[in-house]
Amino acid sequence: MPAQGKHRRTKSVSLSRGIAAVTTGGAVLALPVLGATTASAAPAHSVVAEKAVAPVSVTAQVNSVTKAAPAKHSVVAGETLSKIAREYSVSGGWKKLYEGNRKAIGENPNLIHPGIKLTIGAKAAAPSDAKAAKAAAPSAGRAATAERADRSERTAAAPVAQAAPAAAAPATYSNDLDGWIKESLAIMAERGIPGSYEGIHRNIIRESSGNPNAINNWDSNAVKGTPSKGLLQVIDPTFQAYHVPGTSTDSYDPVANITAACNYAADRYGSIDNVFGAY
């Protein structure tokens, strides 16, 4: 609610009268003595002064608000939104950073290219600034009866409650390589793990040819008793260390295998997109 205007009513100050006795010879003349000038003139001058000063005061308040310019960051190879958010201590993490740069990044927060310009710390103008400026200079000419009527109208016009939007139906994914990758990307987006469809698909084809039950029983890992398994050929110790909560604990599970491998690749290489060979 905007601040109520204060209205003054000038007071009439009674003229003070006295009787002065003047003697002239033996006669006494009674003369009325008029007091100092009436006080009604002073408030009128005060109101004019207030009207003249108020706009200057509001301008000073508005101009006194300073805002720090947001920082700019140019993405380099190997960087992720999570890493950049940590570097700049962004409140809200990578999601807040993505929201402020969605237009530059695109629809997939996991796919950022070197050279993209990000704005760090951009903030919308606080609505309280405008309200404070408006409250600082209420209209001096509004009549009290008009203001009461305005308050009554605002009170009567109560906001109408809006129905909550229907909950979105949960996404469904096909039980094949395409579906596994898309479901993994959705989980990765929620967890801030970078990676793209192309980067995941390219590495899966190289590592397992798309077979979720693939296992390597001949390399050095197998000799140590920890063979590489699944779509992205992850050994058990790595799978357990980088397992993403909410996915299966079975390293052969396609979605669990992809998300754990991408989590590991993000930690070591910045993103699965930066992996082009054995990792």
Give an account of the 3D structure.
The strands form three sheets. Strands 1-2 form a two-stranded antiparallel sheet. A two-stranded antiparallel ribbon has the order 3-4. The chain is built from eleven helices and six strands. 43% of the residues lie in helices and 10% in strands. With 279 residues, it is mostly helical. α2 crosses α3 and α10 (236-242) packs across α11 (254-269). The longest helix is centred in the first third of the chain and has 23 residues, at 41-63. Mean pLDDT is 73; it is low at 1-67, 124-133 and 135-141. The protein has helices at 41-63, 81-87, 93-100, 102-105, 127-136, 144-156, 177-191, 197-208, 220-223, 236-242, 254-269, and strands at 17-24, 27-34, 71-74, 117-120, 215-216, 228-229.
Q: Can you tell me the residue ranges where pLDDT is under 50 for at least 5 consecutive residues? A: 1-67, 124-133, 135-141
Characterize the overall form.
globular
Helix content: 40-55%
SSE order:
EEHEHHHEHHHHEHEHH
DSSP summary, beta strand count: 6
> Which sheet architecture does the biggest sheet show?
2 strands, antiparallel
Main β-sheet, spatial strand arrangement = 1-2
How many DSSP H or I helices? Answer: 11
Span of the ends, CA to CA: 61 Å
Rounded to an integer in angstroms, the radius of gyration calculated over CA atoms is 38 Å
Please tell me the overall pLDDT: 73
Q: How much of the residues is beta strand, in percent? A: 5-15%
The helix/strand class is mainly alpha
